[in-house]
Automatic annotation (TrEMBL):
It is a multi-pass membrane protein. One of its GO terms (cellular component) is plasma membrane. Belongs to the binding-protein-dependent transport system permease family. The keyword Cell membrane applies. InterPro entries: ABC_transporter_permease (IPR051393), MetI-like (IPR000515), MetI-like_sf (IPR035906). Keywords: Cell membrane, Membrane, Transmembrane, Transmembrane helix, Transport. It comes from Rhizobium lusitanum. It is found in: Cell membrane. Its main location: membrane. The chain crosses the membrane at residues 12-36, 65-94, 106-126, 156-180, 201-222, 263-284. GO terms for biological process: transmembrane transport. This is ABC transporter permease subunit. Residues 69-282 form the ABC transmembrane type-1 domain.
């Protein structure tokens, strides 16, 4: 009788339901509360008087927000394309069973073990015109060498791209390499029998058949672009000026520095909407492919 009661008291299905209910409450509840705050004039303290979409109108007339969105597009395109290209190239090298493959993978996986703050500070020191690469070249007598992108408003965004590709290429390499190791050997035999060059086989046969794997990499990289904050703070703090400002930094600044809860909430909701808009085509294509 006691054993039966204990089994009824600790049913796993009830435990799972309670767990998901708690997660849904905090996750979707937070999203709902943020959306509600974006409809108010909340500043330091929440205000529960709804004023409609006034904060969204103010958001899209804010020059800093528009610049941050443009920066995110520039950074996102270069970062995703560059990381995919570099990571897939590394995966191909590893897949060809090069010598010291374990060391090769370790070298390019190492950046993943380093936090984005440490990565940003390291690259900030390396690209510093006074103490970094430029100063090193000058010490070797190459006085004409100039690499001051970090201090130039028109090029600072590209330093973030370089550091981000270095940090994330290893992740793409691992994911793509796992997909490459799952390719059937019969396919490789057919490629060799047809005499197809290796580079053409990867571009026209292998990679097109790994669409879900590559799509997973793109989704992961897109999430990094939208919520990018740590690397920006460590490298440029959004500067020079607002030349490297991003939506995530905009929202955090207005939450805590300018204590404009309403506008910051509107920015956060727009970041969520942007994420859904970017992911929708992929899920729609997957749904159509399966049906």
């Amino acid at each position: 009788m006691t054993t039966w009661l204990n089994r009824q008291a600790f049913r796993p299905d009830i435990t799972v339901v309670i767990f998901f209910a708690i997660v849904a409450l905090f996750f979707y509840g937070s999203i709902g509360w943020t959306f509600y705050m974006s409809l108010t004039r909340s500043t330091l303290l929440p205000s529960y008087e709804i004023v409609g979409f006034e904060q969204y109108v103010q958001l899209f007339t804010n020059h800093r927000w528009l610049v941050s969105c443009l920066n995110m597009v520039i950074f996102g395109v270069l970062y995703i394309v560059g990381t995919l290209a570099f990571g897939m190239l590394l995966a191909v090298f590893a897949d060809r069973q090069i010598k010291a493959e374990s060391l090769f993978r370790t070298i390019f996986l190492y950046p993943l073990a380093v936090s984005l703050i440490v990565t940003g500070l390291s690259w900030r020191w390396l690209l510093d015109p006074v103490n970094g690469l430029q100063a090193l070249m000058h010490s070797f007598g190459w006085e004409s060498f100039v690499f001051d992108w970090l201090t130039r408003p028109d090029r600072a965004i590209y330093t973030l791209v370089i550091a981000s590709i270095w940090h994330s290429a290893g992740l793409v390499m691992v994911i793509v390499l796992a997909g490459l190791r799952g390719i059937d050997n019969d396919l490789w035999k057919a490629i060799r029998m047809e005499g197809i060059p290796i580079w053409r086989a990867y571009l026209q046969v292998i990679f097109p058949g790994m669409r879900p794997v590559i799509a997973s990499c793109v989704i992961l990289l897109m999430s990094e672009v939208i919520r990018g904050y740590d690397l920006i703070i460590a490298m440029t703090k959004g500067g020079p000026g607002i030349s490297t400002e991003m939506p995530a930094k905009f929202a955090v600044d207005f939450y805590f520095a300018r204590v404009n809860l309403g506008l910051a909430s509107a920015a956060s909701i727009m970041m969520l909407v942007l994420s859904l808009v970017l992911l929708a085509p992929y899920f729609l294509s997957e749904f159509r492919r399966r049906t």
